[in-house]
Specification:
Length: 327
């Protein structure tokens, strides 16, 4: 990624982190809806060239250099408002909307900076769909990783209707009871999160060449958290799933080719998805013996939405500058 793009992505990341800290940081107990209203007003000022501090100035500089829209930033703040007023989610429709607000928005902020490859034949819609899917996948992974931590704070980011069908009472979660019902429930939730990672893969090769590798690295490493939950026997009450530094170091060289423009895979992984193929090799401590270019095309987000009972409004796909309206 070029230095200018790196600085812009850093500015966006810092703004997102500061926004998240408002409701999850050390001063979260003092944050009110009025405070979030002030934060949104400050956001509007920096988009108009009036930053409050140096970190705001970095974002203000970014929006003058790249066609970044303010709407996903505002939507993220709306996600923080949801955290203030909600600690339960009735069904996946509600949870999906929350995941969009707090994480899917990050992909929509980032695409204008990362850029779409000039040679890409994909539609703008499909690239943004993939970016949205990666944000949703990451947030679902966060939720599954942090069940115990969230329960200790009185929060439960799991679809209540699906818990009821699985026969898991709320008391079991707050007590951290690891039962077979819980294991089966986790298996289904992990499967759903992987669906979104699979969809996200389809858009990475459509990004500008300089931006692909860090996105691949992020996708692969984050997806391995789901593998770790499985390795922990689905105990996400008292055991935190994380990917070791050794695993991370082993994963990255396989993604980073000499010119950072192509991604290569072993030929015997042809029938597998990209990340599961790489993880297979990492888990076997094996290096790539042969290579094959892997291209991923077409979008299946509509199919995913159907499977996961997405909000009907999210089916209205928009293009170009109107893509922010697709949620």
């Amino acid at each position: 990624m070029t230095p200018e793009r790196r600085r812009a992505i850093w500015a966006i990341y810092v703004w997102c982190r500061r926004t998240d800290e408002l409701v999850d940081g050390p001063n979260a107990s003092h944050i009110t809806p009025t405070a979030l209203d002030r934060w949104e007003a400050r956001l509007e000022d920096l988009f108009q060239g009036g930053p409050f501090d140096m970190l705001d100035a970095a974002v203000s500089d970014t929006v003058t250099k790249f066609p970044v829209d303010i709407q996903p930033f505002k939507d993220m703040i709306e996600g923080m408002r949801m955290d203030l007023r909600k600690s339960r989610y009735e069904d996946f429709d509600e949870l999906y909307l929350y995941c969009y607000y707090v994480a899917g928005t990050v992909g929509l902020m980032s695409i204008p900076v990362m850029g779409i490859a000039p040679e890409s034949q994909a539609t703008t819609e499909s690239v943004y769909n993939a970016a949205l899917a990666l944000g949703i996948a990451n947030q679902l992974t966060n939720i599954l990783r942090d069940v115990g931590e969230d329960a200790s704070r009185g929060r439960r980011y799991l679809p209540q209707d699906e818990l009821a069908v699985a026969g898991i009472p709320e008391d079991d979660i707050f007590a951290g009871r690891l039962t077979n019902k819980w294991r089966n429930f986790m298996k289904s939730q992990i499967k759903g999160a992987r669906m979104f990672f699979d969809e996200a893969e389809k858009g990475v090769t459509e990004l500008s060449a300089a931006s692909r590798w860090p996105v691949w690295a992020s996708l692969l490493l984050y997806r391995q958290i789901l593998d770790k939950i499985e390795a922990n026997d689905y105990n996400n009450f008292t055991r935190r799933a994380y990917v070791s530094k050794a695993k991370k170091l082993l994963a990255l060289p396989g993604l980073h080719t000499q010119d950072q423009e192509q991604l290569w895979l072993p030929t015997r992984c042809e029938q597998n998805s990209l990340s599961s193929c790489i993880v297979q090799y990492i888990n076997q401590d094996d290096f790539f013996a042969s290579t094959k270019e892997w291209l991923l095309k077409d979008s299946a987000l509509k199919r995913l939405r159907s499977k996961w009972r997405m909000l009907s409004t999210s089916n209205e796909f928009m293009k170009g500058d109107d893509c922010w309206n697709m949620i």
